[in-house]
Amino acid sequence: MNDGDRGDLILLRLENSQSAMQESKLLIDNGYWNAAINRMYYGCYYAVSALLISKGIQAQTHAGARQMLGLHFVKTGLLSAKNNAFFSDLFAKRHSGDYDAYIYFDEEITKNLYPQVTEFIKNIKDLIFREGYSVNKNQE
User: Fold this and answer.
1) Of 113, 87, 134, 106, which Cα lies nearest the Cα of 34?
2) pLDDT tens across 48-97, in order?
């Protein structure tokens, strides 16, 4: 993949992240807690995907994305272990809410996650741009 294609894909993933977060806000406002957590997770996942792409790192699965994030960004000190744990916990919540019977998240849990997700995505975007990958910073 050339740099132009990589930049386009990074921007697409960041746009997907932003869209997922807008969707999660609408779902929160209408009381769809499990669906809101799903969209918040995907907001984070798309941002992580953009970060991995910016470094030429491939991950084929959600587990692979979490593993590559830990290996290339947490172990190197670029991202805190707390951020990585948050991403893993959010994945577990999303997975449980999507697939486990009788799992219903509530307003308090969901609304408390939203600012944490926003902060996580900001941290990921900061890494993309701080580490020198040149894309349109209007996506921040």
Assistant:
1) 106
2) 999 999 999 999 999 999 999 999 999 999 999 999 999 999 999 999 99
Residue pair 36/27 in contact by the 8 Å Cβ criterion: yes
**Ranges of each domain in the chain:** 3-132
Using left for φ > 0, alpha for ψ between -120 and 50, and beta otherwise, residue 89 falls in alpha
For residue 95, which of 55, 17, 40 has the smallest C-alpha distance? 40
Q: Burial, 7: exposed, middle or buried (Cβ in 10 Å; 0-12, 13-18, 19+)?
A: middle
CATH number, span 3-132: 1.20.120.330
